[in-house]
User: Fold these one by one.
Assistant:
Number 1:
Amino acid sequence: MKVTRAKSIENREIVLETAARLFREKGFDGIGISDLMKSAGLTSGGFYKNFESKEDLIAKSCQRLSERTASRWKEHIANPEVPNPLKRIASSYLSEKNRDNLATTCMYSTLAAEVPRHGKAVQEVFAEGLESVLEILSTLVPGSTEEEKRANAIAMFSQWVGALILSRAASDNMLSDEILAVAREGSHLEGSGLRER
Amino acid sequence: MKVTRAKSIENREIVLETAARLFREKGFDGIGISDLMKSAGLTSGGFYKNFESKEDLIAKSCQRLSERTASRWKEHIANPEVPNPLKRIASSYLSEKNRDNLATTCMYSTLAAEVPRHGKAVQEVFAEGLESVLEILSTLVPGSTEEEKRANAIAMFSQWVGALILSRAASDNMLSDEILAVAREGSHLEGSGLRER
DNA sequence: ATTATCTATAGATCTATAGATAATGC
DNA sequence: ATTATCTATAGATCTATAGATAATGC
């Protein structure tokens, strides 16, 4: 029953990855520890040797997601083969694929609305993650001053998150595609919906 | 134990109102039938004589919320004492009060992200409600053609919903106020963030 | 007599813990 | 000997139902 130290670390990783997927797919309340551990190929009893509580798992798996998004966006920016990183990020964010695959989507679009009902640790993960998202977007967005860029980043990301959520709430409908299309066009830099004073 | 027909109808109303508040405050999974009925001043046993299931209550209470928002906005538009209905709607939507009082806020900002995980009846309530919100906003928003107005309504409401959700996820923070302020400014018609082709 | 609401409870969850098991790693 | 994971279970939920109770309304 006991496994090697390496395997044990790997198991912990698998639990974190599984949680990150299932929470986004089913919501924090939509999946229990027992089913989650089963999905990870383990049994529920071992869970509390690795995590303090379900709340602790929520905080740690979302921390993972937050870091991964930031580093993926930074890679696009650093990659010389990506000519327009903002366009690249916007079109993948506002794609039908990102709307339809809850398990792999942005955590703000599936889970942020539940955050006010959770503990401080979870709230901090979302608050800090949001700050770093906005810092990255600020460097990509148009604007003649720093303040203008920051405001544009906030306006744009708000619209993205709202558009994804509403497009899912409108699903089965032409409206759903329409919302994504509008948000995509709004993010096309020139002549865009972004504010200029 | 039996009450008058009038009182019985009133009780049903109270349950719907209580549900509308508690679902927004705690999420669909965050409140059980038993506690909900207790909040309404009743006991849980009678619930299923009035509603088919919890899912049925979700659909019906959200239907209520949806109709109420539409009629309140329409009143502002019809009221000659409100000189700028869009500004009035935007500033109350993006107020700190609306951010902080979950129990009375817009259902799209607290509950829409959970909709894809629910049944068809609930999905339809949100889809139809969203359509009517957009129809109202389309009449208020700038734009030289119908298509442009509709696109602007979609862009604006997406930003509003996203801004509220993110401002709550960023709570305790200066960032939270900043997000609301940006969205408010973005909605001030002239020189606004709204798209013009 | 009818029926709106009550009490009580079945059966299925859920989070968390206790202690057994068996393989690792000293 | 240590310990990662397992089985089993406590105790608290949750949705939904059954049948009792007592006031309405014919």
Number 2:
Amino acid sequence: MPELPEVETVARGLQREIAGQRIVSLTLGKTDFIDNPEILEAELPGRTVERVERYGKFLLLRLSGAPEPEKSREEAALLVHLGMTGSLMPKGVQDERAKHTHVVMLLGDGRELRYVDPRRFGRMAYLAGKRLSDELQRFGLDPLQMSAGEFRQAIHLRKARIKALLLDQSVVRGVGNIYADESLWSAKIHPAELGARLKPERVAKLYKALQKILQRAILLKGSSIADFLDADGMPGEYQLHHRAYGREGKPCMRCKTSIRRIIVAGRSSYFCPNCQRTPRGIRRRARVKRGRRRIR
DNA sequence: CTCGATCCCTGGACGC
DNA sequence: TGCGTCCAGGGATCGA
């Protein structure tokens, strides 16, 4: 599932592959994940993808200005969220179209930039000017760009669980379930711990762990669970380095205790019950999701 | 402010 | 081989 390192990998690949390319034409399939398909059809053809950036878990395709002079100074971009199963890759026109190909952009060099997303949990939107800046403002700081102080500021007064805070894109942008669990394991913090109850030195430890893990994951081109591939169609390798995520029942790589899975903030959370002690005063209604009912 | 529940969606895993 | 069921999860939304 594409989180910050995976989206960064895709953004770098697309920057290398398609920056400078003009979008000649656009073909849409299913559009229920697109904010306003008509605007895409009206605005994209003729624009050039000036550069490709990552913004949290979004890909930001920065576009050249509109033909109309009064609008040409506006920043314009195509926002793409890959959701769980989305991919955005350049392909040759002759290449067979994968099932669930929903957007095809013909590029100036003859290739096609294709968006494929079986579950359509992704999102696509053309935004410009104030709409674009307003949208981007909804999000918190990038965990790789924020300072330790800014990170602490974002969580130290919050009563929510630290796992929920890490996943909240308005707190920090780009962290998802995998890297939240990995950084909490690394910092030895229980996912249900409340932000406000974390001592400053533990927050600092989490900040360092998060940055280190994200940077290392970027170097390894992300985690390929499900079907994540980078812009060259290559899987990442960070999934081989997971210490907690997806390791229920397997021994903790520090202390051999069996990794547990509970639900925190509505998400599977993998942790070591020995290294990451249950905080005092936490109601332990956090159980494994709807376990084994359905008797009969 | 924070929570859980629900929905969106498809494919893969699993049981029989 | 095939069918039914469960489950994954980011994000929006709603009610408590």
